[in-house]
Specification:
The radius of gyration is 16 Å and the shape is globular. The protein has a 7-stranded mixed β-sheet. The chain has a single domain, classed as Domain of unknown function DUF4159 (Rossmann fold, 3-Layer(aba) Sandwich), CATH 3.40.50. The chain is α/β, with parallel strands linked by helices. Helix 2 crosses helix 7. The chain has 7 helices and 7 strands, in the order H-E-H-E-E-H-E-H-E-E-E-H-H-H. The two termini are 26 Å apart.
Length: 213
């Protein structure tokens, strides 16, 4: 009964807030608030380039709050520890299987914590790497080689890892790319224009894909 209620809330909000993005606040001490200009800049880019109508000032929602059901797209980032308690786990799982989408962008150092915590949310499902032929790489802009490399980090190749539920991609975890740094104001990291453009275009692909699937 509780699950049905949550689904109805999601559907109701989904009709009202068909294109909205929120930043996910999580427990564990990691800096969920990092890259403060990233998502606003991505939203502006999307509104200007792929005709979305997203609120330019994204809200922050907590993992255990029913407020997440107001947003079809959640963005999560940071450097450090991530922890989901039982309420977070149940809420996030219900959100994702009810039609929500979560993008986690590793700002460096998140991967071991994220992988462990996602096992709580989907204990029987592994993260899988998306092939370069996946539609998320060409829904608005074409990335024939897959996820672009924005920042070096450990010098490893960038990976787009996903979790699927009943055939739908419900979660995208971008690693060794750091799209969010590329979305930030140019003065923050002094990335050249072409690198920032790649990051924003890939971000627009993710947004468009999440809204349309």
């Amino acid at each position: 009964m509780k699950y049905l209620y949550i689904v109805l809330i999601f559907l109701l909000y989904g009709l009202t807030y068909s294109q909205e993005i929120a930043i996910l606040k999580y427990k564990g001490g990691g800096d969920w608030y990092s890259n403060p200009t990233a998502v606003p800049n991505l939203i502006t880019y999307c509104n200007n380039s792929i005709n979305t109508k997203i609120n330019p000032k994204p809200e922050t929602v907590e993992a255990n709050s029913i407020d997440i059901f107001q947003y079809p797209f959640l963005h999560m980032t940071g450097h450090g520890n991530v922890f989901f308690n039982d309420d977070d786990v149940n809420n996030l799982r219900n959100y994702l299987i009810s039609g929500g989408f979560l993008h986690i962008d590793d700002n460096y150092g998140m991967k071991p914590y994220v992988v462990e915590e996602l096992k709580k949310v989907f204990p029987n499902t592994d993260l899988v790497e998306l092939p370069v032929t996946h539609p998320i790489f060409n829904t608005a802009y074409n990335f024939p080689n897959g996820l672009p490399k924005i920042h070096e980090h450990d010098g490893k190749r960038p990976q787009a890892l996903g979790i699927f539920y009943e055939g739908r991609l419900v979660l995208l975890f971008t690693v060794e790319s750091d799209l969010g740094d590329g979305w930030e104001d140019q003065s923050v990291h002094n990335d050249p224009p072409d690198v920032r453009e790649k990051a924003l275009k890939m971000g627009a692909n993710i947004v468009k894909y999440a809204f349309e699937n």
